Every structure is written in structure tokens, then in C-alpha cells.
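This section describes the prediction task in plain terms. A model, or a person checking by hand, is given the sequence of a single protein chain and must write out its three-dimensional structure as a string of C-alpha cells. No templates, partner chains or ligands are provided. The sample shown here is typical of the held-out split.
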Amino acid sequence: MDVVSACQAFVAVSGHGSFTVGAAAARIPQSVASRRVAALERHFGAQLFDRSSRSVTLTPFGREMLPPARRLVELAETLEQDAERAKLRPLRLAVPAVCAPYLLARLVAEGRRHDLVLDPDPAGPGERTERVRTLEVRAGLVAVPPDEGAWRVPLGLAGDTEPHIGPHTEPLPLYVETLRAGRRDRTARRRRMWIQPEDDVPHIRDRLVRLSEAVGLQPAQVVVASSLVTAAAEVLGSADLLLCSPSQAGELGLAWRPIGELELARGYDIAAAIREDAQRIRTLPPDAIGRCLGVPGVSSWE
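The expected answer:
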């Protein structure tokens, strides 16, 4: 027996002195109200109403049970209201600082269509992991090696030059060894590769540094920038290169090329201190998150 529903019927009928009127007030059929009250009486083993006249009146037992029944009904109503408020409470989500605001806005709108109110919190890779750990956010899109993540974003080098197009309009690889200064131009300014904060993680930074050392580049030719703006400013109008995704290169108006000697990529996955919060994020279509991260080949928003 549903005790709460039975008590709701009991309170409604007692308040109007009629099964018909009470049932209408509770928005249930009169027959349903009668069955629920009868089930409650069987449960308690005593009658709640005296049905000897045309109107119903409370029995002495019914008068005793009415106050606690009202409290239960009020508590159930409060619980429903709290549940609705909880569903509307924003879920704070740590996201990469490189996500475009308009794409994050689209993600928030998509979340609402799935009864999920998101509050994006842009931050760098280390900050996102720390905020999840300290419960500053309920979940985060954290940086992981690309073969361990749910989303993968390829990385290459982009410069402020004309793009190099291959046979099928694909950009030709750029080999890092070509950045090594020759004997004739040792006095010339060496081209640098700028790493933005989003890629200042071991599985990306260390691999690029090891490659540069292996092909004979100077240590100063690989630079970790304090911000994407700083890195992009150094590249614009110079021969320097920015390690970035194809989507970022497009936003900055740079020509993007994959790295010839190795394959670099960002990996992302969902992390949360509470499993339920991670599961709620996973109810979103993967492409909705992929668009914000710059995953190539994801269809545009409808």
C-alpha cells in the first residue's frame, strides 16, 4: 500500500466531509479515494470514518490519526518541492579554458534538454583535476593520455603562413627537424614552438621536448607559454609555430599542419568525486561535449 497516497486521500476527504468532494479536491476519482481510505483502515485495523450518514465524519480513531496524516502529507509535498529544486541546481563542470564561449553556451542549452543544468567553470588541466579532487566542482573534463580518454583531439603545429595543401586538400606534415638551424643561418633567429597551458601536460609536452632534442633543436626552441593569448601573439607575424588543434588554428587564422615525426593528441575524460555526477554528464550526447573540445569530424549544431 502507498501510505502517502492513502493519507492524502484521508486528509482530503476529512477536510470536505465527503468522499466525492474530497476526491475532486485531490484530483482523483471518488472510487480511488474510497479504496485508498479503506486500505488505510485495513492497515491500521480500525475505521477512520463513520459512514452511517449521507456525510462522512471522523471516528475518534480518525481524529487521533488526522494530525500525523497531515504531517506526512506536508512532508511528502516538501520532499517533492525539494526534489524539483535539486534538479534545477546547477552542476558545476570544470572545462578546458580553450573551449569557445559560444560552444559552451550550446552545451549548456543541450544539457537543459536532458534535464541537466550545467555551470561551466573554465580552467587549465591541472586546475581542473584539483577542483574535482577538492569538490570545488562536481565534475570535470580532465586531461588524460589520448588512448585512455573518451574524446581525442589531434594536435599539430600552426603558423602565420600560407597553408601547405596535399593532394586531397589535406595539410602536409611539418617535420620538426626542419626547424633546426643550418650552418649558414646559425646567427638567424631560430623558429620556436609554443606550447599553450592546455598542452602543458607530460603526455604532450615531454614527447615534444624529447623529439626536439632528438632532431637537434636548441632547448630554447620549445617554450611553454603562460597563456594561449601570449603564445598566439608570439606566432602571429613571425615564423614561430603554435602547438594547437585544427579548430584553434582556424579560430586564430593560422595554417595548421600535423607533426611529421610523431602523433600528438589531447585526451579527455569525465572525472567526478561522486559516480552519479559523472553518470549525469555521460547522459549528454558525446558529440555535444566533443564540439567544445575541438574533436574533428563532429557534426555542427542543429
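For orientation: The first strand starts at residue 49 and ends at 50.
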